[in-house]
Amino acid sequence: MKCRENWIRGAIFIGALIIGLIFGAFIVRPPHTANSHLAPASTATTGVSVMLDYDNGTISTYSNLQISENETLFQLMQHIAAQHNIPFAYKNYSGLGALITQIGADTNGTGGRYWQYWVNNTLSSVGASSYIPRTNDVIEWKFITTQQ
User: Fold this and answer.
1) What single-letter DSSP state applies at residue 83?
2) DSSP reduced 3-state for 45
3) Phi, psi of 121 (to 5 degrees)
4) What pLDDT is attached to residue 24?
5) Distance between CA atoms of 27 and 42, rounded to whole angstroms?
6) Contact by Cβ (8 Å): 111, 54
7) Which pLDDT value is given to residue 139?
8) Which residue from 36, 51, 55, 129 has the least number of CB within 10 angstroms?
9) Which residues of the chain have pLDDT under 70?
10) Count of alpha carbons within 13 Å of 31, Cβ hemisphere only?
11) Element counts in the chain: helices (H) and strands (E)
12) Going by DSSP bridges, is the β-strand pair 106-107/97-103 parallel, antiparallel, or unpaired?
């Protein structure tokens, strides 16, 4: 019975996450003036920091990361995983983009925990494939339960 309850909670969470991604991708994204946060096409920006909190006492940080114009957080995470040999998995959802399902040994749903990210101490309202990091962003990925 407990297994079924956990499965139902996981299915509800995934459904809510998908609805949130749809809503966030079209409505919540703050307006910007044309190219207000982008570097000129021929240059790259620097200063993005990423922290991975595995919720087991292990925290990895990557500072002063260089990103290209229009590079998404999802693409940045792919580069970090490849450069540092970190297991990384995701699932593509048509019209929504990619949902990161695994970083390191931690896979979404394990122990009721999921990978979630904050930008400058604010829980993101869009998926990683929709967010374009800006210079000086501090991005924190945490493997936690949804109640936090």
Assistant:
1) H
2) strand
3) 70, 20
4) 41
5) 30
6) no
7) 98
8) 36
9) 1-46, 147-148
10) 1
11) 2, 8
12) antiparallel
